[in-house]
Amino acid sequence: MGGIWNVIHEEAQTLAALFGSGQLDTKEDKEILVAGPYYAHRGADWNRGLNRITDMEEFKSLNPGEELRKTLESFENSGIKVFTGSKFIGSTKIGYLQFQTSDFGKILSMYQGKEMNLESRVKAEAYEHFGLDSLRYENMPNGPEYTHYLCLSYAISELVRLLISTNSENFRTSDLTSTQDFIPCPGVSLHCHEFGVLYAPARLKKLGIPVNTVATLHATLPGRTAGYNAIRKRRNNDSTWPPGVPENLAALEALASYADTVTAVGESTRQEARLFYGINGIVIRNGITIEPDKINWDLKERSLERIRKFLSENLYKYHGGERIEPEKIIPIFTISRLEVENKGYPDLLDSLVALEHIIKNNILEGHMQEEIRVICFLITAEGPKTNLPSGFPVNLPKEVLVGNELRIQQMIEERELDFPKMVRGKRSVAALLYPQILSSSDGGLGMEVGEFMAGCCAGIFPSRYDPFLLTGLEAGKEGTPSVVSRVCGFSDAIKTIESLKEALGGVIVVDNIGLSYYETVLDYALAVSYFTRNFIEDRVKYKLLCREAFLLAKDMDWKAPTEQYYELISGTRFCKQENSTDR
After folding, report:
1. Are strands 114-117 and 108-111 parallel, antiparallel or unpaired?
2. Confidence band, pLDDT 50/70/90 cuts, at residue 41
3. Taking a C-beta distance cutoff of 8 angstroms, is the pair 571, 294 a contact?
């Protein structure tokens, strides 16, 4: 879940819907262009291990207007391949332009009177403008990634430059040496997400192209490398970079300073940008798109039954012991990238140990049935897997695991949170590593992410470092309450939601900044216990908690941040239409 593509996709779609709603005071038709990379075949991606291949089959043909057609012709004449597509949201078209940067080393070009390939030209120009030492950067272990992003940024900046030049008869870039006296072009604006494309607004600024630009940071590379130590660095005003920061990519990230406006998805990221780069920005939160007005209770019940049945059958089949009745199983979950410390896996597992003792006391006091079993899914993986054994992940041979997956499984076993004691009736809480990307064909539960989240009693997200945490909103979208850490940007955003300030019980924020480790772990356990007890004892109250989580997510939709982004890049405000019944 989450990721930069989710954000760009939702921003484009929401903006298109707003254009069609009549809330924008403009007489001109607006077109949205989404630009990114194109991977034609296996090996074209800079990350050879992922083997990503771009699929544009869902899109219709672009049918560009005059300015864009001329721009695409210019790209074609220069040898740059651009793959295009389009889709409509109402009457507003979104165009998709995907640049094949892997060919830049094969395209002949001229720079300062010398013939060279286009990749070399891009690097030479970047060195002249910003001192980017590509000769050194490309020989680093992540050199192909740096080169790809530099070339992609170049292509995006050329897209803007050509669009403006075809739209302005008297525009000549050779005459422009400074942007001090130029007014941004009202016809074209550029919003760049994350370090990989931040050379684009910087290059446009150096060339003097009159375009308004916004750069959004979803994290900072020094902050992400420091991880949970980033909190200490911010407190101590320690701007030194921790060991391991990818210098070449950080050089690209620092170019955000050339954008007209810099935004961050959370307060922690905004502070990191100021600390590590001296960049002052503003916070515009992430969001989520929820179309239904109500929770799909039928989906939640069906998904819960499916998860329970899967666990009950496979636990007995592969671990023996006592057969656990499906209705006695309470599934909870976490889902994240595989960053053991940053995502707080030690905190989570220790909180499950504490939860075991809380449940044991509840049973002794007669507040909970002895047969209740809480099973926490840990959805995290080094990458997608194939040819998985039957019963996966309850049947989880060690040879299936790689890298940090092995480490997390060892952490589970060290705390005796694996299944042997649970099936013998000696434990009420277990952790189940699910090292696979969830899908209907994942070789395990065979459920899409939304179905799975809907079927769980609660989510728990104990991140020690997390710029936003979109998965918390995804859980709320499915009407599933969650426990989140104070460090994530999601918890910051909750404070700004005024309409629901009296009813936020569906999301519990645990202070993992001000409290000691043991207090934090206990608070996670108590929060999960709160949800599970209501799930067991008071379904009416539990459904209210689900509804509160859903309403919070719905109130944090993409409309408000998209309006903010648009106002920044265009200088045009959305009209706030009054309800006719109030006049």
Report:
1. antiparallel
2. confident
3. no
Cis preceding linkage at 393, omega within 30: yes
Computed over its alpha carbons, how large is the radius of gyration of the chain?
A: 26
Choosing from 81, 100, 119, the residue where a domain stops is 100
Task: Specify the residue for token string 């030049």.
Answer: 165
**What is residue 496's predicted lDDT score, i.e. its pLDDT?**
62
436 is in which domain, residue-wise?
Answer: 297-562
The region of weakest confidence among 168-182, 285-299, 469-483 is 168-182
Asked, for residue 460, whether it belongs to a domain, the answer is: yes
Q: Specify if 579 maps to a domain.
A: no
Q: What is the mean pLDDT of residues 185-208?
A: 91
Q: Which residues pair with 545 in a beta bridge?
A: none
Residue type, 170: N
The pLDDT value given to residue 467: 87
Q: What is the pLDDT of residues 126-153, one digit of tens each?
A: 999 999 999 999 999 999 999 999 999 9
Confidence of residue 119 (pLDDT cuts 50, 70, 90): very high
Q: Would you list the DSSP string of 469-537?
A: -HHHHHHHHTT--EEEETTSHHHHHHHT--TTTT--TTEEEE-TTTS-HHHHHHHHHHHHHHHHHHHHH
Query: Left, alpha or beta for 250 (phi > 0: left; psi -120 to 50: alpha)?
Result: alpha
Q: Using the predicted structure, report yes or no on whether residue 48 has a pLDDT greater than 50.
A: yes
pLDDT tens digits, 16-37: 998 888 766 555 678 899 999 9
Residue 192 sits at φ, ψ, to 5 deg, of -110, 130
Distance CA 507, CA 223 (A): 26
**Is the sign of the CA dihedral 293, 298, 302, 304 positive or negative?**
positive
| CATH number, residue 322 | 3.40.50.2000
Cβ pair 304, 542 in contact under 8 A: no
Q: Is residue 179 part of a domain?
A: no
pTM (predicted TM-score): 0.85
pLDDT of 562 strictly over 90: yes
The span from the CA of 350 to the CA of 555, in Å, is 33
d(C-alpha 96, C-alpha 63), whole Å: 11
Please say whether the beta carbons of 475 and 459 come within 8 A. Answer: yes
- The single residue listed with the structure tokens 């150096």 is 206
CA angle 577, 556, 563 (to 5 degrees): 45
CB atoms within 10 A of CB 309: 12
Domain count, the chain: 2
